[in-house]
User: Fold these one by one.
Assistant:
Number 1:
Amino acid sequence: MRNILAKAATAALALSASTSFATTVDTSFPEVWFSNQVGGNGAQLSFIDAPGAPETIRTGKTAFFAFYTNTEVDGSPIWVATSFNPIPGVTTYTVPLITSSGGSFVPGAAVNATNLDNDAVLTVHSCERITLDVTPEADFDGIAAGSIEFTADLTGAVEGSSSICPYVNEVPETTADTDTICAAGGGSALSAGVCSVPGGIYTQDLTWANNVLWLYDGQVEIGDGTTTNTLNVEAGATVAGQPNSVLVIKQNANIIAEGNAESPIIFTSAADVDPALTPASGDVAGIVITGLATINGCTDTSVTCVLTDEALNQFPYGGDNDLDSSGRMRYVQVRYTGREVLPDREIQGLSLFGVGAGTVFDYISIFRSTDDGIEFFGGTANVRHLIVVGAEDDSIDWGFGWRGKVQYALVLQEEGFGDRGIEADSNEDNFDLEPRSQGQFANLGIIGASTADNGAKIRRGTLLKMWNSWIIGTGDECIDWDDAPTYTAAGTPGAPTGDHVYANNLFDCVNGPFEDSSSDPYNVSDFISGFPGIETGTTLTVDGYIPAPGSSVYEGFIGIDAEPGEQPDSDFFDLNNYVGPFASPNDDWTKPWSFGLPAINR
């Protein structure tokens, strides 16, 4: 079989004119398929390495093969293969056909493959049904011409996948087929397989299925601030916004966007799904979520603080429920976002206003925002497995009393773009307002650009706890503190209050690890160097985004038996003894679901 696989992998491929933006061929598909039209013989669909195959978003450099057999008169089998490089959203491919006679259909079998003159059109209708249409319509090597249909059994979990293939609904082939799906999501059919959702307030439950493309235009607001309705987004769905459009999840409403590693949910711009256009940061505004957790920023501290979002100034946020839930987002990509509504008033890739700790954010990838990647405006939202690539302002930003936790986070700046890896405020008008911001981070990695500013700017009275993390490559110092209340809240070198903690971290930046100034109350370098496991004299070599094998971050200059305060004490954090997002060069949790990271690691 290996010979025929290799031959198929190098065959020329051509996409047909027919494309869809829904079902995506990925590694969650089952391996064994059957067709009654071919005498009970079946097909095997495999993802294997294909040198030279183009990079694809979800599967990396792999090729996807279908094989089926027939039996000659003398009893020897015929093997017929076809191959294509899967492209997310493309469901129809024009493919070559390769055939062989004899041998065994097992790995390593000696099979001599030859090209057929016939091409075929392979259409993926869902992860249950694939058809192969052979042209010209003439028998070839005993296989009947015309359409051959293959089906798969999805009653159990797919081997090698964390879940059953999500694409159980077929791609609609007509506008009429699409209408019902669109109506369930608050939209109407723009064409077969494409739903258009206009701006407006939606107070009913909506479902955005994965067998159509969702195009929204304007301000799509889920809930009216009092309703508890939910936007459900299916695993593998693609949601694209027209220019300046924004998706808003209001207080009391929810978003349930549960992708998986093989089939992430993609929020992107309309330009990203149009083959005639080139997507860019700022194509679409982004995602805004408003919650009911506590914030600071109100002059009257005797009442529960409620503000309106900074950019549009329309959506209330804040309350008194730090455990408030706005839903769940897992295995989600957010691409090509950012919008400046007024000077210093922007919509980020993901803007979280007063979002509570009951909300789940896990495996979130944000790619190319004209402003910040993710910004927390108060609240208590927590995030695991966060990736921010190519933010043109700050990658992670917070203020207004955010008191959340982040573990396993990777920030990658692009040269010529980006300001700070972290920009941290409490409140820009009153540095001592309560609740005071305090971000807590474990296993953070920031790879800065030489053209960028600090790795982390800590100012305006905010607090920071950071464990088991590294910051490298930023054009200025790794850590800079501003403003007297920031220093006061920390304590003094040798006598910290416990509200600022820096333990077991590595700093390697262009202008050194820390920015000290004679005008500051004391040197931040003296304060941070008093914590255990601070390493500043080591150059950390990173291949793409993964530290090189043998780096000290894996060996662990951290003691497993840490003293109190040297490891996080919250139930949210995993306790470990490695520095940065990855436990080893092989511990790459960014695959295959994320987007925009260097190909060297993919």
Number 2:
Amino acid sequence: MLHGQTDTLAIDTASVLTGRNYIKPFASSRMYTHISPKELSNAPVQSVQDYLDYLPSLDMRQRGAMGVQGDLSIRGAGYEQTLVLLDGVPLADPQTGHHSLNLLLPPEMYGSVQVLNSGASRLFGPKAMAGAVLFQTAPAEKESLFATANAGEYGFYRLAAGYTAVAAGFSATLALQSSGSDGYQPNTDFRQQSMFSKLQYRFKKGKVWLNYMAESRAFGAQNFYTATYPTQFEKISGSMAALHWELEPGKWKVRGNAYVRMHQDRFELYRQDADYYVRKGTRYIMGTDTVPAWYTGHNYHQTRVAGAMANASRSLRKHTISLGAEWRQEQVVSNLLGEPKTPVLVPFGSDSAMFTRETSRVVSNVYAEDYFQWKNWILSGGILFSHSKAYGMQWMPGVEVAWQVKPALKLFALFNRGYRLPTYTDLYYVRGGAVGSKDLKPEVANSWELGAAMKRQQWRFQAALFARDADKLIDWVRLNGSMTTTATNLTRVLFYGADGSVQWVPKGEAGKTLKNVTLGALVMQASKASTDFESNYALDFVSSRITAAATLAVTEKTMVQCMLYRQERLGGYFSPGSSSETPYPVVYSADVKAMLTAGSLRFYAEVANLFNSRITDIGNIQLPGRWIRGGVTLQL
């Protein structure tokens, strides 16, 4: 899907990664979404998470503002079933998928964002059961400088700056960002800082580059995980170093990476702060409220992930053969998750907390793929074998076919099998009315897609029918009348629906004012509903969504971008003290941004949630109403 393209149809000349190889978008044998850096910078959003909320096939269930935390899913799948990658490195955290969107970049540092629907396990392994979102860093091939200062209501601020230097095949990039807010309601404040660096060397036969990023984030987590204990708080920090290579020795193309990722999480079920709960002895007290005796301290988790992958491909006449392997080790040390261990002091704790548990696992993948073009046909197929000690060997096949009926019309179909291992939270968590289960089985799903794509002059269109037959779905559920939320494998569930988009980029006189219009839609259903229990994730999906975006040129130097959506979500949630579910409200939301360019400066003003709609993505978490912001960016 082409969403919000602001100037030309240059995407037709770009190459996108669909599978193991870079190809032209219209040569893809599945639906695709490609977001350019210009689309991100022109959109009335402050984070890439906010932008993804406007894509019909994606469900960005946010808990806080400005990308503080959100759960990303594709076509109604659970957030744990969608893999997020940065330059090919999976950001999946073995503790919980709630951290999958951590360690992302300032919006100015993205080269592109791509979305692969209908399963991608045969391409990227078990975590991509329902699909994958691929973030690419900016190419860093010319000298550039940017600086941004934003401010708005609720004490919001965002400061960011970055510089890229280039010399004799080398390039070096450094970007820093700091943002925060006092919160749009009590206990929704946040502060976050991040840095990103990239060192790259390009030579005749390819390029190698090293990414390093780090972040820290602290935020009030009002009702984030349970409404029974509303005044929650979380502080996370993380870092990742990744070495990448793309080489072309002879007739082969070789790509790969090796990476190490560290992540620390301090979760307070009762926020410890001078204005909230203070620790007195072994108890936490706020005014006359003393926490239960069972709460003796906060949750501390530290995950360490190391991995490497290598892929080699070669063209043989009409075939492009790809072979590869991947190895990944996931470890957690915690005071709550894993098996008992010799206690050690938590290095980032502040209340003499001890790490008393740990566990780890190794997942290995090998795969083969063939991309074949013959006359008007495209056939792409492959298989991935994945092994872990706890769950044995699993195989994930997939096949995709496209028929170029006419130069401007393509029909396509695909099948992919997906697979997902439980996280350590699914397996071990026991606290605050939530209980994990060590007996959980991995999820499996078979995905199908049948669709069409067309491009004709100023028009672009694509649509698909899809189905996902999922078995042993992992969800956190609460039965009617119960106070406990339990991790469990649901019975078999069939998800099915349709989605698509159409874009018009007018030419001539109309194109002088109206730069583009994009419409998107999704409808879907499932064979099972949460009629006698509260489903936290698996069955509370968006059943219908309509999106629209338009870009207008008011003057030669002034642009206005509008983005709107309407959505309905199935299921509901239990409010504190209620014995019946509250259904999710129908949401109407609109964001508007006006931009004025003056030389190297661009000034902007934006209004998020223009209609001041009541938005609830996850039960009992009220998202912000209308929010006015503005700022200026220097780009050299």
Number 3:
Amino acid sequence: MGAHHTRAHSLANPILTGLDRRRALDLSSTSAADPKYSMRPIDGSTHGLKAQQLKRLQATFRRKIKDDALTTVELARHVADISKEINRQVGLLVDRGGHITNVIVGEPHRLYLPDLGRARGGFGRLRGLRLLRTELRQQGLTREDVADLTKLRLDAVVVLQVDPAGHPQGAQWARLELDARNKALIHVEETYKSFLQLPDHGMALVREAEAEIAKAFAGDARELVRDAAVLIGVWPNTPGVRKEAESSMAELSELARTAGVKVVDKVVQVRRQLDPKTVLGRGKIEEITLRALELGAELLIFDRDLSPSQLRAITNTTDARVVDRTQLILDIFAQHASSRDGKIQVELAQLKYTLPRLIEKSTAMSRLTGGIGGQGPGETKLEIHRRRARDRIHRLEEDIKKLGVRRSVRRKRRTSTNIPVVSIVGYTNAGKSTLLNALTNAEVLAENKLFATLDPTTRRLRFPEEREIILTDTVGFIRDLPKDLVNAFKATLEELEESDLILHVLDASDEMLNKKKQAVEAILKDLELDGIPTLIVLNKADATPKPLLSAIRRVTGGIAVSAVEREGLEALMKAIEDKAFELRQPQSDYDPARSPLVALVDDEPSDGRAVGFPE
């Protein structure tokens, strides 16, 4: 996450008002050479504190912890007394030399850490800072403490219990240690009835643990759980929502796996109505952020599309990277696009998605770039990025138009041969590529992943009596396919316009078969392709109970096959032949040996690239 603000978010610099501000200015006017009165910024919210209280907080910087102790008696009593007086938590960040680098004023029940900057180089090293804080409500170590310890790689967290009289009583502390068996970091907690029982050699234990960690990871700067994510699903409370949510989250999990992301947790929230600003509420976002920090995840993936305003509100609440469903799908397409056509279309879709979401994330984005002698403030960095994005979108749209002309020429060559064209469509991961391989003995990539095949692939399928068809495998469909993605891929999916027959492949073993069938049909309707004759293919019949398969066949009128086991293919090929050629005129004068298609297909690359698509 770069700079970490782990306890939900970081607060602004101190805000002083009225007499407090004037007294603070008087203190700052004292000679800076005198360390007794040198002014150092106090982190957190100091609003409402008296000048004398601010002075006592400033005096904390002059204290020092010697040797390997976690704290001193004097320091513990000092911060406990101040904490009780102002009725807020007080935290100190202490370096390895025992010097106090930060004094932090929190709320009665929470402490917000400031931006600590980049960690010390190498994963095997801890940050070199420990947190010492007070606790007014007898809660002890909290989830926030553990999250700070593990994510920020603090040396230790020490919590001092403050009694009603303002005296330090019990104490807890936690540190990181190496789990050698799993090669992972774990936290160890210790509780004492009196803070005086805290070990005098606490920092020595920390350094020993750091040495073991450094040895195990050999200075590896990578995170333990890289590209780990928490999946978030938010649903309105409607009948049957639980089952729908489970299915959708399972699909999102598959999308994440396809994108190379490790899912460490899933959060499903059913609300009476969605929060219009942050979708699931600010408090829930903070809770999820803490959970992500505990699990070492820096990515939050939402199972819905986020508007630019919602994305802005959520990212202002958490420092985790936030990705919605559309962005995840676009990332998968970008990873799998191999042809020049596919890459251009994916880039266009990404730019159209990103353009309205180009928002100011830091002051660096608002620097002005007017030239010498220019009037007015000039063009901001943000405006420049937007203008360049619009220019790039225009160029890509022109490139796609040119590629569309080349595709139309290829289609004319196909249609001139009077050979039927059959296209395979279906929900992603329904087994379309496996079916193509089974029918044509091709070697198209077929994996148990969503969108494993992105660029359309064309193969020839011969029948007896010297008849043949063109069989095309298209990109998998998915529910709520992003609008920009549909628009960008219309150029590729327009191959379907020339189809004489569409094979709609369904996963017969899928509980959500009907909804996925409807999702594919809706996309075909949007593309105005719903008028093309369709043949339903029920794939994965071997993994479907026979009574259920029989019922599905009766309802859909589909042909049951198993592309993996190569079962039911003869019946399917007979149905394809009958359906495809009855839609075409008799081919009595057709000689496949003289067909330009023969040269086109026979000369196709051996690496399985799509025929008729530019590289």
